[in-house]
Write a structure and sequence with these properties.
894 residues, alpha/beta, six-stranded parallel sheet, five-stranded parallel sheet, 38 helices, 20 strands, 10% strand, disordered N terminus
């Protein structure tokens, strides 16, 4: 298997070594005389000439399996050898406290879990960042942003313990958040969770793969705010520390080209290449480092390989024949893992014993020295050099591929073992061996008892730790909730047309976009609005916003658009306000999350509206939406072209009948399915007030349709009902039946009421349900209050419908489970209708008949609940009168 170009280059036969040496000498002469820029130019010209001559060659994306930064280019370590030694001791202490925390928790409760090995491999990577590069937010500086590898959370807690931001008592409640509250303490969440530790964690990274794409769009949103003049440029950085196995997730690599295209040199990835995932090697038969180098370099990133520690430098210097480099090029990751799991004698025989030249290099080392050879990610001086290069690189994002050993220092209990990721319990001998390996000042008794260790306040270690963080602005991670206050404009300023529609025809999508356009013009809130689309702006009628506020482009518009003569031409601008993300729902929701959490991340509240095909929201990118919920996002998700029967002609994969069901599972998502423009106006106003005015950590999911219809003006006194989830369109005294309907099916219910009156003389009352989800949540809360505190107030649904025993029929353009969610609170016989089954391509009328949610089916269902319809023969006659086929199959079975 060809793992890298270096491997291929070294294995080729050199037919004329003298000529090769002359070419290499000539290149070196150019570098010395004219510098690297001239050398790069000549190499590019040679490559172009080769292509023109028909030679199929291109510059390889891989470099030899060595460090990118040469020894002579490494900057001195800040503070010199004394500081380096102090920081190494601190890292060892944090390794111990992290290990003790996890093992102690699992001694008490074996089911708690936790991870030791990931942090053991990444500890030095984090420590160099904390001590020299990760800058905290201050009054004068916005701070760097850091996405922490989730499995390394115990190490971050261990550092916070030494810093004093977490107590020993809190460490003792690792993964015991509920139990901790019983003891007046804060428990420590399993992974970075802002919802659970709101003042500590800033970004959730527990779902692997979401951190990388989120970090990229966070760095891009930072630039967006700077280019729009909302944030002052401060050379802030976004750092992401991730695992090599995590890079297999599609989202991890999905936006690499965006980062380079946008020249996000404010972005640095550190990929901890410990070569192992949960079950075994990441790439047993290859090099994950080479693979990632190819992917990142090909996408336009600056790649820094950090593979070998300083103790390898003398070995490379002795490698006159290149056999050491060649051996490393050809040693696959699975074998490197085996070397990590074994001692110096094993490595001498299996690695250095491959050739006489390697044997000679190995002979200069004892077995113990071979065993202690460091990989680059465990050498703080090398790490500092890599971070320094990344922090100062311009014009590209940077990725540092840092090679480490998983379970570093855990010895026979875990270092390099296939089972190391699951290692959570260590015996006394293993703990003492770990103590000895890192020369920790802990007694055998304290070691066996898993005692946490914290040096004295006046110790060199503690003084250095606190001085370094003070120099970098304070402690991290830290989540701030301080923010600028925004005034919410009066509803009439942007939605008067919807409140007083007086029969004007429009879709709810058109109504929302019109409100959005007016909000963008508002002197107070306008500049804080962030419209986001995934290449569907024209579909949703948003083209007028192109001219009004422009589409964000970090380069402006370098071309003349084809439609320049149109009033709605495609206008890109460096200060554009719309984020047009192309066909990438994952990218668009990542931008939305960055905007929706700006109030905390930047102290600058923004209000994003992400408008998308509703089917491609919770179903396709539900994990990213869940992460946004964890991050306490505030903003609007707008599911357009929603409903299973409203998006005519599109069929199975486009027609949405389930998004509200999934939205209902997200605790801080407030969801609505409005039928009218005025309902939309009230919902948007309420959302702005709650998120911006009241500063609630919630977000709104609102579905809108592309179906034009005459919009009524808002009746008096319905605002509360709209917000609570239901209200009556017109009260009917002694109604025989009540119809509840949501969104586009409301007009079908109104038509059904007319049919029932005209054909059968049935007096019918119609209710608009704006949110089955909010009604269900209210009902569950009311039931609990009644059960636990003898409260007398019933559920809102019960109070609204409790004055009659008339049967209730409920319908929506979503699966029946939506209407079923309020069954327990309806004080009468209750039947639900919905769009269960796969979508179909056809007209709206045929689709609604197929799913049995049109006016005729609603009317027949109502009749079936009345005395006259209880007779099967009579019901059949009613069906014939309505033109319905009772023998047709149910949509859910087809």
């Amino acid at each position: 298997m060809e793992m890298s170009s270096a491997n291929n280059l070294n294995s080729q036969f050199d037919s004329d070594r003298q000529e090769t040496d002359e070419w290499v000498d000539a290149l070196q002469a150019v570098i010395q005389a004219s510098g690297p820029e001239r050398a790069r130019y000549l190499l590019s010209r040679l490559s172009a000439a080769a292509q023109q001559s028909g030679i199929k060659w291109r510059d390889s994306r891989n470099t030899p399996y060595t460090n990118t930064i040469r020894v002579k280019d490494e900057p001195p370590f800040p503070g010199g050898a004394d500081a380096l030694s102090t920081e190494q001791r601190l890292a060892s202490l944090m390794r111990w406290n992290a290990l003790a925390m996890v093992v102690r928790a699992n001694r008490a409760y074996g089911e708690l879990g936790g991870h030791i090995a990931s942090y053991a491999s990444a500890a030095d990577l984090f420590e160099v960042g904390f001590n020299h590069f990760f800058r905290a937010r201050t009054d004068a500086f916005g701070g760097d942003l850091v996405y922490f590898q989730a499995h390394s959370a115990p190490g971050i807690y261990a550092r916070a313990f030494l810093e004093g931001t977490l107590t020993e008592k809190e460490l003792s409640f690792y993964r015991q958040e509920i139990e901790a509250k019983k003891h007046g303490a804060q428990g420590l969440s399993s992974y970075p969770h802002p919802w659970l530790m709101e003042n500590f964690w800033q970004f959730p990274t527990g779902s692997m793969g979401l951190g990388p794409i989120s970090a990229i769009y966070q760095a891009r949103f930072m630039r967006y705010l700077e280019h729009r003049g909302l944030l002052a440029p401060q050379e802030r950085k976004v750092w992401g520390v991730f695992g090599d196995g995590e890079m297999d997730e599609p989202e991890s690599l999905a936006a690499l080209s965006l980062a380079s295209r946008e020249t996000l040199d404010n972005l640095v990835f550190v990929v901890n290449c410990n070569l192992q995932r949960l079950d075994g090697p990441v790439r047993g038969n290859g090099h994950i480092v080479d693979e990632l180098e190819t992917l990142f370099a090909g996408a336009g990133w600056n790649v820094v390989k950090l593979l070998w520690g300083s103790d390898w430098d003398t070995l490379f210097a002795r490698d006159k024949s290149g056999e050491l480099v060649n051996a490393l090029n050809q040693t696959v990751d699975g074998q490197l893992q085996t070397f990590a799991a074994n001692n110096g004698a094993f490595n001498r025989e299996r690695f250095f014993g491959q050739s006489p030249a390697l044997q000679a290099i190995g002979a200069t080392l004892t077995d113990d020295e071979i065993d202690r050879l460091h990989r680059g990610g465990h050498d703080m001086k090398k790490i500092h050099a890599a971070y320094h290069a990344a922090a100062n690189h311009r014009g590209q994002p940077t990725v540092i591929l840092a090679q480490t050993k998983k379970g570093f220092g855990m010895g026979a209990a875990g270092q390099g073992k296939m089972t190391t990721h699951q290692q959570k319990k260590l015996d006394a001998d293993t703990l003492i061996a770990f103590r000895n390996r890192f020369k920790l000042p802990i007694s055998d008794e304290a070691c066996a008892a898993l005692a946490f260790y914290k040096p004295a306040d006046d110790s060199p270690e503690m003084r250095h730790l606190l001085q370094r963080r003070a120099a970098l602005g304070g402690f991290m991670p830290r989540r701030s909730t301080s923010q600028q206050q925004l005034a919410v404009p009066e509803i009439a300023s942007h939605a008067k047309f919807a409140l007083d529609a007086a029969g004007k025809e429009m879709s709810t999508t058109m109504a929302l976009v019109r409100m959005l356009g007016a909000l963008l013009k508002d002197d107070g809130i306008g500049k804080h609005i962030v419209p986001i689309v995934a290449d569907e702006a024209r579909t949703f009628g948003m083209a007028n916003l192109f001219r009004q506020v422009g589409i964000y482009s970090s380069q402006g518009q370098l071309y003349e658009p084809e439609d320049i003569g149109s009033i709605l031409y495609y206008r890109e601008a460096k200060d554009g306000q719309i984020l047009e993300e192309g066909i990438s729902e994952a990218g668009a929701i990542s931008s939305w999350t960055a905007a929706a959490t700006s109030y905390s991340v930047h102290g600058l509240p923004m209000l994003p509206f992400y408008i998308y095909y509703s089917m491609f929201g919770f179903q396709r990118i539900g994990d990213l939406i869940w992460a946004a919920a964890d991050q306490r996002a505030r903003g609007f998700l707008v599911g357009a072209t929603s409903g299973r029967t409203t998006l005519a002609g599109e069929g199975l994969q486009h027609q949405d009948g389930s998004s509200h069901l999934i939205a209902a599972t997200v605790p801080n998502c407030v969801s609505y399915d409005p039928a009218y423009a005025y309902e939309m106006a009230v919902i948007v106003q309420d959302g702005m007030q709650r998120m911006l005015g009241n500063q609630e950590d919630i977000f709104y999911y609102v579905t809108v349709t592309n179906e034009n219809e005459a919009q009524p003006s808002m009746p008096q006194g319905v605002e509360e009902g709209i917000k609570r989830g239901m209200y009556c369109l017109e009260r009917k005294k002694n109604a025989d039946v009540r119809l509840l309907a949501a969104g586009p099916i409301l007009k079908e219910a109104i038509a059904a009421a007319a049919l029932l009156q005209e054909k059968f003389g049935i007096n019918t009352e119609v209710w608009s349900v704006t949110s089955y989800t909010e009604l269900a949540r209210d009902g569950i809360a009311a039931q609990r209050n009644q059960r636990l505190s003898n409260a007398s107030e019933a559920a809102y649904v019960t109070r609204q419908l409790g004055d009659s025993q008339a049967p209730v029929i409920a319908a929506s353009d979503y699966v029946r489970s939506m209407a079923e969610s309020i069954r327990a609170f309806v004080p009468a016989s209750y039947v639900t209708l919905g769009t269960d089954g796969f979508g179909r391509s056809d007209t709206r009328a045929n689709l609604r008949d197929f799913f049995e949610v049109d006016a005729k089916w609603i009317a027949l269902t109502a009749l079936s609940e009345l005395p006259a319809g209880k007779d099967a023969a009579q019901l059949k006659k009613f069906a014939e009168m309505l033109g319905l086929d009772l023998a047709k199959p149910w949509s859910a079975t087809m």
